[in-house]
Amino acid sequence: MTNLDAKLKNKLLDLAETLNAFKSEAVQLKIAERLLDVVFNEEQGPGDENLEQQENNFASRRAKRINTNSRMQDGTNTRERKSTGATKAMYRLLQSDFFDQPKTIAAIAERYNEEFNENFKTSEISGILLKSVKENLLKREKNQENKRYEYVKAND
Length: 156
Hints:
Strand order of the largest sheet: 1-3-2
Shape: rod-shaped
Low-confidence stretches: none
Distance between the termini: 81 Å
Largest sheet: 3 strands, antiparallel
CATH architecture of the largest domain: Orthogonal Bundle
Number of strands: 3
Strand content: 5-15%
Number of domains: 2
Structural class: mainly alpha
Mean pLDDT: 76
Order of helices and strands: HHHHEHHEE
C-alpha cells in the first residue's frame, strides 16, 4: 500500500468514526454528502457554478440514490404493494350486494380484510368513498344514533 493510500485510509476511518458518532442516519448522510461536495468542488477547482446549480446537482444525486435504493436486485420495488388496491376492491364491493344496506367506514374496512385479506386504513378508504359519492355510485347518510356516516348504494 502506498503512502497516499494509507493517508486516505486513515482519513476515511476518521470520517467514519465521526459520522458514526451521530445517532441519526439522516444526519450522517447529510454530513457525508456535504463533505463529498466539498471534496469534489476542491478537485474541480474554482468553478463558475453558482449555488443554485450546486443545489440542483445535490437534489438530482439524492433522487437518483433514492430511486436506486428503492429497487431490489430483481427489479421490484422495496416498498410493498397491496395485492388488491383499495379502489379496485371498492368497485368489486359495489358490484356485489354489500352496499344494499348502509355500512360504516369501519365495516367497509373490515369487509376489505375479510374478502381481500388486506388491512386498509380507514383513511385510505375515505377518499374512495367520497369519490364514489360524487360519482353518484353511493349515497352518504348520517346515522342519527351514533352520528357517523354510512354508505349505501345510490338509487339509479
